[in-house]
Amino acid sequence: MPLQHPHHGHRTGPRPRDIEVNPVFSREPLRVPRHTLPRGEMEPETAYQLIHDELMLDGNARLNLATFVSTWGEPQALRLMAECADKNMIDKDEYPQTAELEERCVHMLARLWHAPAPEHAVGCSTTGSSEAAMLGGLALKRRWQHRRRAAGAPAGRPNLVMGANVQVCWEKFADYFEVEPRYVPLEGDRYHLGPAEAVERCDENTIGVVTVLGSTFDGSYEPVSAVAAALDDLQQRTGLDIPVHVDAASGGFVAPFLDPGLVWDFRLPRVASVNASGHKYGLVMPGVGWALWRDADALPEDLVLHVNYLGGDMPTFALNFSRPGAQVVAQYYTFLRLGFEGYRRVQQTCRDVATRLAAEIARLGPFDLVTDGSELPVLAFRVREGIGAFTVFDVSAALRERGWLVPAYTFPANRTDLAVLRVVVRNGFSHDLAGLFLDDLRRVLPRLEKQGRPQRSRDDAGAFAHGAETHNPREPGRR
Q: Compositional bias (Basic residues) at which positions (predicted)?
């Protein structure tokens, strides 16, 4: 017997529900509120399509030369991350093997950064290097408080010495945790912290000195060893024992592979702690960071809390509680996948692309290099003096027309007169892409030179300097 259409022939039961056919671009509802919850549900494909279409307005991450964060990953790493998307990193009793992988990563980094006893390494993963930096700062503050109280001295006015070029997370740390930031302003061609300038700002209330292995502003390494030596001398002269924290957000995954002779890590006894971003030159998708201390004494025990309500006793020292384990698993995968030699080859390729790109930009004529990519694979360049037709902000806007996101910004005090463009070369930014970028840069220059006068200024720069925000150094004693 042939099947009958539901609207024809004899029906003995209730009328069946009509089939809903919703072509992708004509689904109900026709209007969706943006700032209030919809009154009812919608089909999952409808919700997906709405969001998917809106996200097309974002820039292309691979062409984003502003960010230090990884924008490319191997399919196997992404697959592992998807498989671990539901794992909560904090729940070490429920996900013991994920916790084990985190511990292995800590030990690998402890050896990479020459901790004195890497088999007893003290460290943890974080949601990113900003959280890791704040944990390092908190440990410095608490250690200083313990020393002051043990000596019967007041412990109410801690300060932290750092260059004005530090990433904004340090300004946040000082503000959130009530520590006076003592910024060392830039002077002349010194674009980061100097040893003498750091020591000048230290006193009995200084909890530590922050050094940066790879400045966000220009990619240069700060002289960690020289700062430590200056603090050694300060201790001999005054008795002040001031530790160093190394913000190795980017350089911690570059210098060990490309600059093994550079002494910046736990080989220096004065270095108490190090932070780094696994999701930058650690080659993992966002967001994972790492915080390590040279030994157990460098991390006060009273900062480590213990919880049992997830099952078992779990020590925790972090600003965040629940967070994904997927990125930690991806970090372990990348360590296994590449090994030391693989990381060296990746970072060397990045440096080769950066230095080649810097040399080509220098030959164009209108630009002077500030850095050439020979430390971090990052180059910064400015418009040469005497060129009045355009600014770095004009160049940034013109390149954006082709999809390139190149930040333009001014340096911090006392070099706010210096405006630069910065290119961050990451894994996935190949020699071929660098060539295409140069072609587009050459293409926009004749038009910019015909402008007659600049069309854009700092106010038109946009908001994607990615950490190169200028700080306003405050007077000592003020917050």
A: 1-14
